[in-house]
Amino acid sequence: MPKSKFEPEITYEGIPASPGIVISQIHVIARGFSAPEVYEVAESEIPREQERFRHALEITKKQLIELQSRLETLSGDAESGIFEAHIMLIEDRAVVDRVMEAIENRWQNAEYAFYAVMQNFLEAMRRIPDPYLRERTADIEDVSQRVLRNFEHDDDVRQQSPEDRHILVAYDLSPSDTASMNRRHVLGFATEQGSVNSHTAILARALGIPAVVGLNGAVIDIKALVPAILDGYTGKLILHPSSATFERYKDLITKKEKVRSALDAMRDIATETLDGHGITVSGNIELIEELPLVKTSGAKGVGLYRTEFLLLNGEEMPNELEQADAYSRVARAMAPHPVIIRTLDAGGDKLPVEPLTDPEPNPFLGWRGIRVSLSRPAMFRDQLRAILRASAEGKVAVMFPLISGLSEVRRSREMLRRCMDELEKEGIPFDPNIPVGAMIEVPSAAVCADFLAPEVDFFSIGTNDLIQYTVAVDRGNPHVADLYRPTHPAVIRLIKRTIDAGKDNGIWTGVCGEMAGDIRLTPLLIGLGVEELSVGPLQVPRVGQAIRSLNHAECSAMAELALKEPRSQGILDLSLDLAKKHYGNLFD
Ligand code: PEP
Ligand code: MG
What we know:
Bound molecules: phosphoenolpyruvate, magnesium ion
Oligomer: single chain
Number of helices: 22
Structural class: alpha/beta
Shape: globular
CATH class of the largest domain: Alpha Beta
Radius of gyration: 25 Å
């Protein structure tokens, strides 16, 4: 793909979110409430454009009616009124007429005409110093986004060919967008929003889709169909690559391919350090579709099954038997290796378990993780019974997310015990000794790990959340991404404290956050005493080889020094030095 004479090479720098290199053409999609693409429609196309607007409104109305009736069932009449207000808004004659006029008189495409009308409306409302009206702007934004998402795109008009293989460029992508991507066409993606630990990025790594996120302000300038290179290793999107750049990337692809096949050849060799210390490497999964990848990666089990991704298939959790079927499939596929099933971790930045009538001011500190399960006992019971059913089909463990203290562990275990009693009475087989773990991802849990350890069978440290809560940095916010430091001394101390509390009580500690897959940090985690690393399937071979190249005693001595080091960078350097000394080739 040599450079065209007239187009200079342009490089956009973002955050590397999922490794891999793609050489292809760009396809841009407009999403969210960022300005949609604007273009002029031909006079003859005006009626069709107006019809597209009416159609988007109709679909939106249908969705809102459905949401409203679900909410009525869940919480009674009172709160379903919010969707009534949304419906009234999209039926508001003043809004509809103004959009129709803009299409007719200004020849604007329907999405843009609608967007412009709503922006004006919002602007006017924001100027009114009335808290009630200000709150209503959130409703308007919400319903406007919904309408924008419901426009059916006409590829002739947009002159794009998303059927061809391409690099997708978008303002933002939700985890469900990522999971439902057509992998034959989308070779990689780049987004303006997002961060390395967002669920979209995690999913991209799990599915092996190269990705760059946090390309601030770039999407608006990027045009469809231009030739490009997406570098998911360094976080670059290069438009109109020069011949030299193109050749350099072709060489890089060959080099990476060589490293990958060398690692594949070693996947069945035990993951033991040079001085004979075994560390389990297991895989994280979100979707059952990832199982073949985990199995071929050489992982010795699933260390984290994020069950909330079952919500992607519908708007609520599947019932007990449907869940049991999914969990049993994973358990049978991985046997004789264990599968750690994490109970629903919804809410916060993740998928909602039900529409919230009253948006939370601080979702990360709100109704998420185990808190949701404990306050929805019927739903929790379905899930625990499903997990127990699967425990008869393979080696299954259960763990609870976002534990912040002892009472949540006790209440969860009590619920599990009741489910066991029920199944026993019903004559349904399950493993009565199913291991029960607590995720350590809230600082209070790490600080009190000595109280929690006697009550569980293992700890799994969720560093993604542990870091964000320890240093008060939103894991998904690109504006503070540089403050999100896995090697912050406070994080390292909390990890150490958790592992020590586990050891004192005879239980093992693993790490299942993204930190576990970062081979710069393998020496540090091993040195601190971690016994299991659960990582994205694509990272398994690399982490395995890192372990085989290290000396446990040397890692422990380094970790001792790291615990005395006050700077994040200093800690990172100590670990990285050891990593480079023993497996520098894995960084190529
Ligand atoms: C974590 O927080 O590190 C973790 C593994 O859970 P999740 O990324 O699903 O929040
Ligand atoms: Mg977490």
